[in-house]
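COMPLEX REQUEST
Ligand: FE2/S2 (inorganic) cluster
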Amino acid sequence: MPRPKKHVLVCVQARPPGHPRGSCQENGSMNVFNAFSTAFQVRNLWASFALTNTGCLGPCHDGPSVLVYPDDVMYLGVQAEDVQAIIDEHLLNDRPVERLMAPKEVW
Ligand code: FES
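STATUS: Structure written out below.
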């Protein structure tokens, strides 16, 4: 398997209702992961990129959180409708989507 150009990690951590940290899954991260997964399939992105659902990445209250390596870019508050922009602008054209990027004090 060739090394991917970029690896997209989508937090799908769940916690019980009312948990003080909240969770990305509570904020809709499964929809985000599914949107990435569908786009990877439809657009044949698996040949060049990797996609992984993962546990907590840290900033739970501001999720859904998405991390892109090796660029070390974290996106917060990602919704399914943002996925195409992340793919088109960041994965395919190396231009991170600034409006979704975590502020410096977070990441
Ligand atoms: S639950 Fe997703 S960042 Fe913590």
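REMARKS: Residues 6-100 form a domain with the Glutaredoxin fold (CATH 3.40.30.10). The helical segments are 29-42, 83-91.
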